[in-house]
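Consider the following input, taken from an annotated entry for Sulfurtransferase complex subunit TusD (Alteromonas ponticola).
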Amino acid sequence: MLTYSMLITSAPYDGDRIRNAQQFAHALVDNPEANLLNIFFYQRGVLNANCLGIPPSGRFNVYKGWCEIATRGVISLQVCITAAGKRGIISQQEQDENDLPGHTLQAPFQQTGLADFFTQLHDADRLVQF
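Applying the prediction step yields:
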């Protein structure tokens, strides 16, 4: 069985990259010969974790799509804390600590560092980036 890790660096509505990434993740979850270890959101990809994003009219809700993948496959959705903070994607804890008006990062997304992601890559056979 091959173990996969996914790296998402594309913003939610930049062409079809994210939709393709979600289809790939679904295929891995459905495949008994594969194991999807985690999905790490980095650079502009952290925008996928914004719970307040509203999709354009007639477009698929990317945020809900990631939540469904996490629930179906018990997949860890990890968001780079540094890249997220630069883009206003903050947790409840960061909101409280910095006296900010609201938070945009909620479960099943979780904050983590880039070093943690690299450590987890040792358990993956393949890394796929979108």
